[in-house]
């Protein structure tokens, strides 16, 4: 089962493993944000400074959240997105999901990507099991399909009797588990997961790993953002390493996650010069080769964010 471009469920045969599912070309995202840094105010021309002070405004600074990120994701891949706080991971997921428009570049996706937690339209006042039904229907399953997958969703979420209680009474971990279980049940072709998998206990971890394997076997592509590099080391066949909005590494998940952890550990221990040496070595080792965008994606592909380069 795969989500069609309209977000409804189609029963078209799963495409061959290894075919392109998401093609990202030179994505750039820039924010303009107000800054209280006195240095930013001082850097402005005198007249502008006077004007801003008079109207009580702060100077705006530019944040380049993504600086030309390109990659081709393929069916059957689980792709971890790694990087320190503010490196652009969530922004990249939002762009892939179509929730954010880049200032330049484009993303093509074979079908509608499902961003976990957003597409499942859950209602806090309703009990978990009612939300499971709602979520499955919202993700395009029919009523019959929803009833069929219900036991699997409840088993995967594994939150016991809490499933009969209103979702607003759930801990954030319980709610994340339920959302993941719903998203996995709908078997989207392209699933985007932001942080949800670090909240479970060992049993949930094992069940979620099995669910991910099923998704990949279905020739789908799963993207995972997680601060715990270990999660990516264990779950992802491939990893993208972002730093200050730049894609500095693209390669096998376990190896990149291992190197990322070692680099982060040295930073945490304030071994800055060692961390710098490691970073230079890893940049070279995992430097993303410019993706080969040929042959083009099949004609059926949705064109998202069609933008000309600035
Ligand atoms: N809506 C926004 N307005 C202004 N700046 C933003 C906005 N969203 C993100 N940013 C900035 O863009 C950069 C990338 O943010 P993003 O949330 O993508 O990073 P991240 O790697 O997911 O971070 P974290 O690991 O802390 O969740 C950061 O500098 C952030 O401050």
UniProtKB/TrEMBL annotation:
> Highest taxon of the source?
Bacteria
Alphabetized, the UniProt keywords read: ATP-binding, Nucleotide-binding, Transport
Give one GO molecular function term: ATP hydrolysis activity
- SMART domains per the record? AAA
Q: Which GO terms describe its cellular component?
A: membrane
Q: Which InterPro entries match?
A: AAA+_ATPase, ABC_transporter-like_ATP-bd, ABC_transporter-like_CS, ABC_transpr_TagH-like, Bact_Polysacc_Export_ATP-bd, P-loop_NTPase
Listed Pfam families? ABC_tran
Q: Which family does it belong to?
A: Belongs to the ABC transporter superfamily.
Q: What's the protein name?
A: ABC transporter ATP-binding protein
List the taxonomic lineage: Bacteria, Bacillati, Actinomycetota, Actinomycetes, Actinomycetales
């Amino acid at each position: 089962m795969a989500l069609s471009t309209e977000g409804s469920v189609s029963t078209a045969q799963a495409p061959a493993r290894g075919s392109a599912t998401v093609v990202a070309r030179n994505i750039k995202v820039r924010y303009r944000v107000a800054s209280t840094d006195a240095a930013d105010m001082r850097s402005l021309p005198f007249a502008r400074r006077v004007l801003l002070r008079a109207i009580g405004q702060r100077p705006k600074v530019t944040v380049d959240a993504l600086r030309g990120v390109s990659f081709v994701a393929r069916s059957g891949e689980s792709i971890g997105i790694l990087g320190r706080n503010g490196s652009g991971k969530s922004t990249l997921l939002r762009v892939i999901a179509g929730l954010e428009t880049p200032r330049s570049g484009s993303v093509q996706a074979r079908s509608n990507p499902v961003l976990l937690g957003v597409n499942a339209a859950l209602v806090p006042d309703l009990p978990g099991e009612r939300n499971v039904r709602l979520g499955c229907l919202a993700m395009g399953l029919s009523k019959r399909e929803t009833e069929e997958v219900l036991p699997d969703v409840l088993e995967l979420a594994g939150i016991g009797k809490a499933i009969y209680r209103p979702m607003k009474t759930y801990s954030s971990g319980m709610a994340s588990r339920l959302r993941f279980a719903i998203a996995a049940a709908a078997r989207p072709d392209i699933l985007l997961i932001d942080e949800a998998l670090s909240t479970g206990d060992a049993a949930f971890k094992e069940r979620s790993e099995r669910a991910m394997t099923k998704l990949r076997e279905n020739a789908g592509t799963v993207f995972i953002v997680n601060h715990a590099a270990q999660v990516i080391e264990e779950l992802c066949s491939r990893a993208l390493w972002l730093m200050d909005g730049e894609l500095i590494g693209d390669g096998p998940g376990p190896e990149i996650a291992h190197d990322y952890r070692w680099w982060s550990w040295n930073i945490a221990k304030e071994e800055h010069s060692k961390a710098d040496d490691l970073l230079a070595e890893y940049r070279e080792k995992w430097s993303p080769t410019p993706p080969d965008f040929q042959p083009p994606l099949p004609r059926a592909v949705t064109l998202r964010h069609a933008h000309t380069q600035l």
